[in-house]
Amino acid sequence: MRPLILVWILLVFFVAWCASQGLTPSNPNITSSKDERIAIASAALERADSMLQSNGKFNDSAYDTFTRFYGQMAEFDRLTNQTRYKQSLKQCFDLDQPPPEMPIPIFVVHTPSTYYELYYGYAAAQAYAAYHDLYFLDLAVTAWTSANQATISEEQAASGTVDATLAGGTYRSMTPSDPNLTGMESGLFLVLSALLAEATSNQTYLNAAIESANFIQSHLLNPSNIVLDSLSSNSNDSCSVNSTVLPYNSGIFIEGLAILASITHNTSTEALLRSTVIAIAIDTQWQGLDGIIDTTDIDGHHIVHALAALYKRNTTSSDLREYIKGYIGVQYNAVIEKATSSGSNIYGLPWTGPPATSFSSLNQTVAMTALLSAIQLVANEPSSKSSDNPTSSRTPIVNMVKKNVTGAIIGGVVGGVAILAVIIARHCKGNHAPLVVDEHSPRILTPFMATSALVEISQQHRMIQTKNARCAVEASRRQSSASPGEVDADATRMNAQIESTAPLVDATNPPNLLPTERREDSLQTNELMRLLHERLLRGRLNDQDDEMPPEYSEGGTT
């Protein structure tokens, strides 16, 4: 009886609180035409381009900012089917090429942090996707080969020189004394490997991407499906994990999974992708109650770009695809309405405002990701995959809660459910075990998703995380590594030019891809929500007239 009383007390409290707050999600509807969105993005790109110095760099930010801008120039050309920036990009990349007496690119010499060269390769891979010019592919392969030196291979792990569970992890720095295998570097290596696998059909790149994804899932993905910062490979650190949550790590991971899933069509990868997308989209650590990302770092870039990559490849169910469209729509509207002044073409951070008054290359490039991502959004485009619940008659989940009391009630129920899940979990354990609270677990937020739809999705795909054994051997850096899979540059070019007549080895069902096993010591929040939802329906609502949340019109674009 006591749990049921607590249920209703908390529900009443949250309904009243939310109604008093007047929670109002932001607008996911993009009303401008595609041509108008292209014009807005073009003006922002031109403003940034005018700020590049003669060396192809900005004077106010780090290396990753201008390489991010290189990728955005290529992305704009791909989205608009033109080559406006192709020659400019070649000139910019040429500035980072070594003189004849230097055998490796300047970016490798002057940048000890692995992520710099990964950003460089990532931009080159985006340029190759836009122009299909082998010049850019060679640059991407060079960056990949260099970053591969900082990545633990499956062969290394099998040899016993490092712990077997660390295969696929990438070190933060090229400096041998740095023991940290990070979410950012491992994620970027996953993305670059997946992009090269997508571009060349080379199995070596695909294997590398799978290894990186497995590493992140096994070691850095917390129970809430959020990627943590890093893991120390020192044996005396016992594989200790730095549990700092940096949202861009999850964004990078999602992008890598999106590309990987489009290649392998592996159901485990698709389920993991769905779970991580939902986790990143509902966490209020980096977005407000209006659903707008409100950080002042590169988080918005990686989150939105990852969702756009998934939307582009159209490999997810229609309900999640519609949700992604609405999520991007919220960010786009915030950028053009709150982060810039009319006609300035200068954008600021955070996207919640106030508008920028001066140019910042960091702020500009992060905002341009939202502008570019919105170009490809279209209204009522069917997904290549049907919803995971074909019998469902619900509207797509990219549904905004209306500005009324019913919307507040929905928010209240969600908040109540989140706390009630904890209470029920403790009650079910009979108070025989302490309640472990993960300080990084997301507070549940559904700014434009109907509560019932969220529960339905969470039921369908619940991420169950693997926990591997602690490290027993101190990791050592790779002393030597061949170019991808012993494949020379000529073979790489051949793969890029000629579509392979044979499918990738086990590409549709790679062995041991993202294995999962159930954690017996704790239930996922989504499952607790589902159990509570079912319990409430059975216990209290059977004899009442069901009043379902109202159906809302989906976010649209022109």
Automatic annotation (TrEMBL):
PANTHER family (UniProt xref): MEIOTICALLY UP-REGULATED GENE 191 PROTEIN
Species in which this protein is naturally found: Armillaria luteobubalina
Superkingdom as given in the UniProt entry: Eukaryota
UniProt protein name: Glycoside hydrolase family 76 protein
TM region positions: 405-425
Pfam family, one: Glyco_hydro_76
GO biological process: one example: carbohydrate metabolic process
Keyword tRNA processing: no
